[in-house]
Amino acid sequence: EGGKVEEWQAEGPHVGQRLLRRFEGHEDIGAVVRLYLPPGEAEDEPALWRIEHDDGDEEELEEYEVLEAMRRCGGRGGGGGDGGDGDGKKPG
Length: 92
What we know:
Mean pLDDT: 83
Order of helices and strands: EEEEH
Low-confidence stretches: 78-91
Structural class: alpha+beta
Radius of gyration: 15 Å
Oligomer: single chain
Strand content: 25-35%
Helix content: 10-25%
Shape: elongated
Number of helices: 1
Strand order of the largest sheet: 1-2-3-4
Number of strands: 4
C-alpha cells in the first residue's frame, strides 16, 4: 500500500553536467550526471542525482556533492562569472 516508487528522471537540474569526483587515495575521476530523483515528501528524502563515472561505475549524490564536483570540474578553466545558484530554474 502506498509504497512510493522512485521515479528517476532523465531531465532535471544538473542532468548532463560534467563532474570531477575526488576519492581518497585515487586520482580525480570524471563523471557525468545521468538521472535526477526529485525530493520526497519527508525531510530525509532529499533530491538525488545518479552519476556515471568515466570508468562505468555509478554513484548517487545529494546536491551539495554534485555542486562541489561541478566546481571542481569547472575550476580548471579561466572562465569568469561566479555561477549564481539560481540557474536551472526555467519559468514554466
